Amino acid sequence: MPFYLSPKVFSNQAKVLVKHWPFKPIKISAARNLLSQLYGYKNDHHYRKVLMTAHATSLAPCSEEIVQSHYREWIQRFAKLGAMNEIQARQLMHMLWPAYLNPNYSLTTKMYHALFRFNGHCTDFLNDEIKNVEIKYDFDDTPAIGDAIQAMGIPHTEVGLIRVNDKNVDLNFRLNDGDKVSVYSSSAEYTNSNMPWKPNGELTFLLDVHLGGLARYLRMAGFNCLFENHDHGDSVLAEVASVGEYILLTRDKGLLKHSKVKYGRWVRAVKPIEQFREIVKHYHLADHFNPLSRCIKCNGTITTVKKEEIKTKVPKKVYVNNITFSQCAKCEQVYWQGGHFGKIQKILTDVKNRGL
Ligand SMILES: [Zn+2]
């Protein structure tokens, strides 16, 4: 040890630890052992033994300068020794050395920082002035990088690739001081995406209560699309999305940050037809249109029915003028070529041609 820690200071600090220990109560002997190891001794016995040597008293007492120069090192070591996080260790450190730390070291000032750069559509979530610059992110302890990204405003569902110091990492990577981070958006165009941003196989969608117009368009095109005209709340939507592997579509960025939501997109457009165009483009849906296979009203499947079966369910003129009729298996809504089909085909052809 390059400095001398007096028995009085040591003993007072052990009492502070016993009083403020954040877990199950500890004895004074355990507190003394912890402090000994924090300051570089093997244990309390070793500390006392060193104290008795002439060498100890010839050293300078532990000064403000020494405490401040060991600030980070001691907090990191203390966290490991006490099996606590660095935020807890830091609070205790300020209790051990109030006179030396409290004036200059605010507990609210973060200890570490990393530099983030967001790319592609991730920047849709950033204010203009920080869109194309490195953003300094201050933090304590070792947060998961996914939490840091979400704290900066980008839902994890929008992230396709994260690189830290030129290596690929996932959302659970623990951030370290000085890390340089590049975040890329999830999209079919960005072929290097290494995070699952859509399920394999057939895509199914879950829409929040504000996207009724988009739900109608997706159903017109034949996509399985859960939507109810009733607000079930964020946690129910997140749960349903996670259990059924649905892609959650919403205009609520906060909903996508829910940990249970695996796949989702913040719908940028405001008008339903523009939203439909956006989703078709983003998920490459144009080649999978299957019009009049799903009920626009209830998402049930539609099948062709014998004309006689729906005689009482459509206007007489419609019945006479049409040959082929389809019906929803769930709500019994009847569809026919002349009415709905023509309009739907026109909309879908237009989106196919203009959207891609
Ligand atoms: Zn129906």
Structure in words:
It holds the Pfam family Ub-Mut7C. Residues 205-347 form the Mut7-C RNAse domain. The protein is α/β, with parallel strands linked by helices. Helices cover 38% and strands 15% of the residues. The chain contains 15 helices and 14 strands. The strands form four sheets. It has a five-stranded mixed β-sheet with strand order 4-3-7-5-6, with no helix packed on it. A four-stranded parallel β-sheet has the order 9-8-10-11, sandwiched between helices. A hairpin with a 5-residue loop joins β13 and β14 (334-336). The mean pLDDT is 91. Zinc ion binds next to loops.
What key attributes describe this structure?
alpha/beta; binds zinc ion; single chain; elongated; four-stranded parallel beta sheet; 356 residues; five-stranded mixed beta sheet; Ubiquitin-like (UB roll)
Output the radius of gyration.
31 Å
Individual helix count = 15
- Helix and strand content put the structural class at alpha/beta
Shape annotation: elongated
Q: What's the structural domain tally?
A: 3
Largest sheet: 5 strands, mixed
Distinct ligands: zinc ion
Quick structural summary:
This protein is α/β, with parallel strands linked by helices. The protein has helices at 7-20, 28-38, 44-51, 54-57, 64-69, 71-81, 86-96, 98-101, 145-151, 212-220, 234-244, 253-256, 272-282, 316-321, 337-355; strands at residues 3-4, 60-61, 112-118, 135-139, 159-164, 167-169, 180-185, 205-207, 225-226, 247-250, 263-266, 302-305, 325-328, 334-336. Helix 10 (212-220) links the parallel strand 8 (205-207) and strand 9 (225-226).
